[in-house]
Amino acid sequence: MSEITIDSLLFAMIxxxxxxxxxxxxxxxxxxxxxxxxxTAKTLSDPRTWYEVNRISGNDLFVAGALITLSSLTMLVxxxxxxxxxxxxxxxxxxxxSLTGVAWHGFIVSRRM
Length: 113
Description:
Elements: H1 3-26, H2 41-45, H3 47-78, H4 84-112
Helix pairs in contact: 1-3, 1-4, 3-4
């Protein structure tokens, strides 16, 4: 198995992990806590704010995880001729940018509540 295949599958699993972590947030199954969810002083102080912000952030995390997974599978198919470092840099960029978007949107939503 090539290094590109291993790297692509690893990032795909990370994307699927984010999808899996997002589902309880979307379904509002995670009560306010200090370990899991979009945790700020504002979300921790009000259960209504907690569930709303975490539902929206969970949706964003689901999209980010799906994007990371799809990007990884695309690299698996199309980037076999690339250098492994370029594949990892590309996938890491997708992951960092999408997770930054999740955090940024979460802060915007929490400020508006």
